[in-house]
Amino acid sequence: MPNIKMTIEYDGTNYCGWQTQKNAVSVCDVIVDAIKEVTGETVKLIGCSRTDSGVHAYGQVANFVTKSVIPPEKFTPSLNAVLPDDIAILESKEASPKFHSQYSARSKIYKYVVNNSKVRSPLLKDRAYFVPWGLKITKMKVAAEFFVGEHDFRALCSAASTAKSHVRTIYDVAVNKKGNIIEIDVHGDGFLYNMVRIIAGTLVDVGKGRIAVEDIKGIIENGDRKKAGITAPPQGLYLMEIKY
Amino acid sequence: MPNIKMTIEYDGTNYCGWQTQKNAVSVCDVIVDAIKEVTGETVKLIGCSRTDSGVHAYGQVANFVTKSVIPPEKFTPSLNAVLPDDIAILESKEASPKFHSQYSARSKIYKYVVNNSKVRSPLLKDRAYFVPWGLKITKMKVAAEFFVGEHDFRALCSAASTAKSHVRTIYDVAVNKKGNIIEIDVHGDGFLYNMVRIIAGTLVDVGKGRIAVEDIKGIIENGDRKKAGITAPPQGLYLMEIKY
Lengths: 244, 244
Description:
2 copies of one chain form a homodimer. By secondary structure, chain A is of the alpha+beta class. Helix content of chain A is 21%, strand content 29%.
């Protein structure tokens, strides 16, 4: 039976996140329903990243095994025809039987978007974190470098994290400002629960002057979540790409 | 009594457009209501551009005369506190008593956004015109040049136009592609009803090969609306800036 790999874009605003939850509609549920509508099967859909409610994706990856004889690439138009406007399959193809969207992933790229205007932006509603205070971008760029490398990131993940190991490797954190928009691009081998949002919140706190650049190293080493910055809100976060 | 000039951003998706209409909610109505909530006055709000339903604005300009003693720049935070999330005042300041947002305007800049991906984009829902066919961008760039200059644009406006003169001057039409996104930036001294959307629709038809580049000159000169391209949908259009 073919193992189908799909790349998925979604606007996370109206969902409880990727993963199924009681009494809430998840992105995964909606796609499973669409696959059932097209094939008649209820498949087990494995998503790579459990994005939170309000988090968006340009490149979520999920896979499922199917008895269907639909050619793998035809799942794209078939599913898009029945999916709602805020979810789309960008690509579908057959992967090796061993492919697992989560375990086979080598690294992930996320983007965090900050709207640093003085006034909230209607066209960025649900799409960015609105920070009207002045932010020192140069300090944010310097602070970003301290996250790069292999570290125990327990200070930068939710207290709700159930990960066995908190060691992750971050390959790059880039902070760029274009007009009033600050983009924080993070590439790593994996991320703990809320980790990108806490890195973004910590960098915003550095920009505001609430956290000193020279304290970042100690915050990571110390391992105390309370010393890091806030968890920046979900609507600024975009899952951009998963590398295999 | 001070004449207040405001710059306004909005997501036009949920409105019947800028202008008041029976049995529908307009952007203008909502701002007039917000001004009444703040000042107690029902003002006459004059908008520069009568954007259609679904059209967005980063830089609409409107003015009103008020008896209120609120400092002009304080209308920005006061109105934003009561306006819905999809409308925001970016700036408010006192203008000369003669300033009229429409009659004083010297030129306007619009952007038209085409999503030229193979698959619809959830994150560009209501924000772009989805064109999944191949478009020859080089031909679109060449065709764009023919619109520049002073022309009678009756071939490129809605049959519903009630303009006395159809002569307008276009200073620039730029077509640029970044990834799958094509942006058409148009700067002119004024625009007829639906004119930017018909220019965009005509350029997309050139990209598709339905209209030949060498026919554009004749289409403008001929004055027959039917020879030009379709009226591209409103959700791709953004009012960017009005120059005074």
